[in-house]
Design brief:
The protein is of the alpha+beta class. It is built from three helices and two strands; from the N terminus they run ββααα. β1 and β2 form a beta hairpin. The chain binds zinc ion.
Amino acid sequence: MEKILCYSCSKSKNKLNTRKSALLTINLLMCETCIVSKFEPRWVVILAGGQFGSDHVKEYIIKKRYIGQPILADELLV
Ligand SMILES: [Zn+2]
């Protein structure tokens, strides 16, 4: 069986849930842990920041509600 990885933490889990992104109009496959933590995948935060401006993703960046390297201001300006 194909292994599906959580969009947010990239770990393979037995159970992933579909969850509507809070930042973009897309559906995400995420594990329970990431959903409970109200995380968004790092690339979604960057994409949404580029599309709607840094104010839109400010909460996520300040509270670090994503997994991975810190998102730098210039990454949102692409
Ligand atoms: Zn996860």
